[in-house]
Amino acid sequence: MLLQQFNDADRARLDATLRPCVDNQRWIDAIAAARPFPTLNELFSHALKAATPFTEAEVAAAMAHHPRIGERAAGNSAEAALSRREQSGVDPSNQELTRALAEGNRAYEEKFGQVFLIRAAGRTPQDILEALKKRLANTPEQEAAIVAQQLREIAVLRLKGVMSQ
């Protein structure tokens, strides 16, 4: 989408464009209210600012849409397609990696009560697995801050992807 199209989009189209980035109405409203943006960098900067901070409830709601690392998101939604693309580096035929991620996911979910969230784009599967193992040592408070940051990074990265199409 071109920046001018983004700035001129009616509210329904704007919501449909932004919701797959992160399903957070407050974030979407903040971006919509700040239009028009003179540059893409100002749009991305504002998107990050609007996501800082995400509340605990906003993180929990957004997390409901994220599959486990190593699992492919199902469905035809824009969000599922984005997730599959972001996790494309995790090869499901690598049984050792798949097993290690599944074990790590289980341990993480037992400890923190939610799926492990990481910005997978730009990371190797080994980077992801190492981060998962490292983050298992965090306290719930430490992990909550990291998860919110990862969610912000994912939202802005997805917005950049939308704007480059």
From TrEMBL:
Residues 73-94 are annotated as: Disordered. Pathway: Purine metabolism; urate degradation; (S)-allantoin from urate: step 3/3. The keyword Lyase applies. Keywords: Decarboxylase, Lyase, Purine metabolism. It comes from the Bacteria. Gene3D superfamilies: Oxo-4-hydroxy-4-carboxy-5-ureidoimidazoline decarboxylase. Its EC number is 4.1.1.97. It catalyses: 5-hydroxy-2-oxo-4-ureido-2,5-dihydro-1H-imidazole-5-carboxylate + H(+) = (S)-allantoin + CO2. Pfam families: OHCU_decarbox. One of its GO terms (molecular function) is 2-oxo-4-hydroxy-4-carboxy-5-ureidoimidazoline decarboxylase activity. GO terms for biological process: purine nucleobase metabolic process; urate catabolic process. Residues 7-160 form the Oxo-4-hydroxy-4-carboxy-5-ureidoimidazoline decarboxylase domain. NCBIfam families: PRK13798.1 (NF010372), UraD_2 (TIGR03180). PANTHER family: 2-OXO-4-HYDROXY-4-CARBOXY-5-UREIDOIMIDAZOLINE DECARBOXYLASE-RELATED. This is 2-oxo-4-hydroxy-4-carboxy-5-ureidoimidazoline decarboxylase.
